[in-house]
Amino acid sequence: MTLIAYALKESLKKGYSLQAFKSDLIAGFIVSIMALPLAMALSIAVGLPPQHGIYTAIVAGIVVPLLGGSIMQVSGPTAAFIVILAPIVAEHGLRGLIICSVMAGILLILSGIMKLGRYINYMPYPVTTGFTSGIAVALATLSLNDLLGLVIKSLQGEYFHKVALIIGHVPSLHWPEAFVGIASLIIMCTSKRILPKAPPLILGIGIGTLLAYVLQKYGFEIATIGSRFTYPLPNNEIGHGIPPYLPSFNILGLSASEIFMLPTFHEIHALMMPSLVIAILAALESLLCATIADGMVRTKHHSNSELVGIGIGNILSGLAAGVPATGAITRTATNIYSGAKTPFASSLHAVFLMIYVVFLAPFFSYIPMAALAALLMTVAFRMSHYHQFIRVLQIAPRSDTIVLLACFGFTVFIDMVVGVTIGVVLACFLLLQRLASLTQAKVSHVSIGHHRKLKHLSLPANVMVYHIDGSLFFGTVEKALEQTDLVLDYIKTLIIDMEDVPLIDMTGLVAMKNWIMDMQAKDRQIILCGSLKITEKILQKLPLSSRQKTKVTETVDKAIALVA
User: In whole angstroms, what is the distance from residue 325 CA to residue 306 CA?
Assistant: First the structure.
């Protein structure tokens, strides 16, 4: 199965009609209206001018649907990346982010080629819920600066430091900007009830822009995209807002721009871990989004093809001075609800963004920063998944609750990398603990009526059956062999029953080898019972002399027949 353009090929197998194109065009237009302010707000949130987010939405928006593995998915910048990208931009600037995007793209392509897509879905639910809720809290905290007009130059450092800065600047709150921000937020949260067909985000941005314009007319200072961001014009003058130019591609090492010079070994070394985190998050969010889309429209995505597509999209986005991209759940859902039929709908939304940039860029400069901050607050609220968070706390096993709270806490108070790492490690440890509790050992000799397998059989007085029930691996070896001391001195034949052992790892093999050799050193005959897959592995581990003295059967009753 091809890894390139899987979704597009699957969509076109049935043909492509004019009616399908019309449906895709309408869906693309509706999604583009939502994507435009989001792309600008997310770029600003990571510390870059708004056009870099738009460049990402354009490049990834066109490339990923056509080359990826999900029919309905829309790709672009997302809020989940903010807490990862903001520190990179603060320390390494746009150049560092470009290098990270390219390296993450390469890692994603390699993951797809190595067919690792299905393993991404093994991320425990409490971990994904914990870190997305943590990111939502961090994003909402960052958004308070522009929402309330606090004029904090930099919100860097630990979470408590950020909160302290915000509280310390509350007395300097700029009420006109706070009024615009809160009004925009209220409209975004409530307009759906009053005007159900109007897009809440666009309505909030529009009314917020109108309020800011009126307040400016009366002499109040309101920070806008035009007042915050500038760009150079060809005549050496300065333009305000967003440049009305389409993204241009640069090859690392072949561009005149310093930010596209070949990365040094030191830069690659310093940015490898952030790139890996970006790749993992991009893979997680893309495949999660693709799975949700499949459930909505009864399609089936190809996970490895999607990894390759999002990898190529991130490389090209980086070379166009964009930010990293992944699947966007809200935009994907909007795409589906708007009647999209094929991946062309997702690409068309990016084409509309190109039109907006070329013809409407001057108007974007009037958008107030407070309204964009309000948009980020609504995004953070949706990302919080508070219903699922509370539900896990209410009904989940205690181990899952511990993982959820640990992942959430570390994500908020340290960073997402630590949160996810701690969450996964803790989840694995608790899983091992659960598996270990399922592994049991029982000893049967003359009085054997209690064991279900031996109810109708009898054993000679010098024969013992040692039953192991459950997986035999590094986390369960100690418990599985904890009753070996009950092998009495008069026992001459030991039947090791492993019929109920589904798997064994290297630790288990070594433990069994040592135990068997110890029993044989005491002149005891060993009979192994179980599936050939398990017993052959144990025999291969034994020395030749020990292997020749070990008998093997598939069942306990056959083993008893050998000594009866």
Answer: 12
Q: Which two tokens stand for residue 147?
A: 């929402």
DSSP calls for 486-533? GS-TT--EEEEEEEE---B-HHHHHHHHHHHHHHHHTT-EEEEES-HH
Tokens representing residue 198 in the block: 């109007």
Rounded Cα gap, residues 413 and 134, in angstroms: 9
Percent of the chain, pLDDT > 70? Answer: 97
pLDDT tier at 456, thresholds 50, 70, 90? low
Total Cβ atoms within 10 A of residue 251 = 9
Q: How far apart are CA 373 and CA 240, in angstroms?
A: 20
Cα separation, 386 vs 399, whole angstroms:
19
pLDDT of residue 322: 96
pLDDT in tens, 258-283: 899 999 999 999 999 999 999 999 99
The structure tokens 């708004």 sit at 50
Evaluate whether 428 touches 406 at the Cβ level (below 8 Å): no
Q: Enumerate residues 6+ apart whose C-beta is below 8 A from 42.
A: 53, 77, 78, 79, 81, 82, 323, 376
> What single letter denotes the amino acid at residue 353?
L
Q: Which residue has the tokens 């040094």?
A: 264
Cα angle 429-435-439, degrees, rounded to a multiple of 5: 140
Cα–Cα distance for residue pair 496/474, rounded to 1 Å: 19
The residue whose two tokens read 């889309």 is 293
What does the block give as tokens for 406?
């640990």
Q: Which residues contact 241 (CB under 8 A, 6 or more apart)?
A: 225, 226, 229, 231, 361, 362, 364, 365
Dihedral, 62, 68, 71, 76 alpha carbons, nearest 10: -50
Sign of the Cα torsion 510, 511, 516, 517 reads: positive
Q: Is the pLDDT of residue 80 over 90?
A: no
